[in-house]
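Structure in, sequence out. Go:
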């Protein structure tokens, strides 16, 4: 099954291990030599005033993707939901 990157954007990503919503797909990281997907980059949900001041993204390895559905991506990840990128550090 082929999926366009534009179809992945804004899909909820759910961790199969514990049922948590990890965030929404905001980008994909591609290998420049092969064009293969290396990571899904997720925008974490933020609540309250924190969403205006802090923006953390997560990297989910492509190997952790279990299923891409119509409106959700299921991953098997033991991630503790630690941020990979911080927008204010870029």
């Amino acid at each position: 099954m082929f999926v366009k990157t534009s179809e992945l954007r804004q899909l909820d990503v759910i961790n199969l291990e514990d049922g948590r919503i990890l965030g929404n797909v905001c980008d994909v990281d591609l290998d420049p030599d092969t064009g293969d997907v290396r990571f899904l980059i997720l925008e974490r949900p933020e609540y309250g005033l924190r969403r205006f001041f802090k923006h953390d993204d997560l990297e989910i390895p492509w190997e952790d993707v279990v299923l891409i559905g119509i409106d959700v991506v299921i991953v098997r990840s033991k991630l503790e939901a630690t941020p990979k990128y911080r927008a204010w550090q870029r």
